[in-house]
Design a protein that fits this description.
CATH superfamily of the largest domain: HAD superfamily/HAD-like
Largest sheet: 5 strands, parallel
CATH topology of the largest domain: Rossmann fold
Radius of gyration: 17 Å
Distance between the termini: 4 Å
Order of helices and strands: EEHHHHEHEHEHHEHE
Number of helices: 9
Oligomer: single chain
Number of domains: 2
Strand order of the largest sheet: 5-4-1-6-7
Helix content: 40-55%
Structural class: alpha/beta
């Protein structure tokens, strides 16, 4: 691992934008076609409606989420249409990065921590199994999802939860994410970080 603390023993990866290609505009357009013009807050990424944050924090189950979406739409649509719009952002896995995770697992304890929800989990786990022939969870010592732990990045307490649950020391742990806000949250716990920008080559860091 280049230019990183030689004491690193653990690596925590984000999923969307790091291991899995995401195009938020596809979901924005899909919900717009269903009649919801405002999905993202003006001035940058962030959900306009609380129902999305509550879903990713585990405060809503799937049926409650869909019911909340129905209230934001001008007409009734099917559950399948809501799920399809919500999952439209999910594209394909970066195969070279998945292979990198497999190689790193020989020398480091590797984890996953993603802001996500039950509908997306079912979709991207199925996508992974069809592409690679085994479960996504097999790549990691443990995978952490915001809806399951009830905490979202970039809240520092979300990272503290992951560290404590996995029994990791922050100074021995590297966190990789494509969100600068999430990186700043992780830094507050004392973790080492890599901010993966669109111009970055993840493989070059290792």
């Amino acid at each position: 691992m280049k230019q990183q603390n030689q004491q690193i023993k653990n690596i925590i990866f984000d999923l969307g934008g790091v291991l899995l290609a995401i195009d938020a505009e596809r979901t924005i357009q899909a919900f717009r076609q269903l009649g919801m013009p405002d999905l993202i807050r003006p001035g940058g990424w962030g959900y306009e409606h609380q129902v999305f944050l509550d879903m990713e924090s585990g405060k809503l189950n799937e049926d409650e989420f869909r019911a909340g979406i129905q209230q934001l739409l001008p007409q009734q649509v099917s559950d399948e249409a809501i799920d399809a719009a919500w999952c439209a952002m999910i594209k394909d896995y970066f195969r070279d990065r998945i292979e990198l995770v497999k190689r790193l697992s020989a020398d480091y304890r590797v984890y996953l921590f993603s802001n996500t929800n039950a509908i997306h989990i079912r979709h991207f786990q199925g996508l992974f199994e069809r592409a690679f022939g085994h479960s996504l969870s097999q790549l990691f010592v443990k995978d952490f999802y915001s809806n399951e732990i009830g905490l979202r990045k970039p809240a520092p307490e979300s990272f503290v939860h992951v560290l404590n649950d996995a029994g990791l020391n922050a100074e021995e742990t590297l966190f990789v994410d494509d969100s600068d806000a999430n990186i700043e949250g992780a830094k507050k716990t004392g973790m080492n970080t890599i901010w993966l920008t669109p111009e970055s080559d993840l493989l070059s860091f290792f």
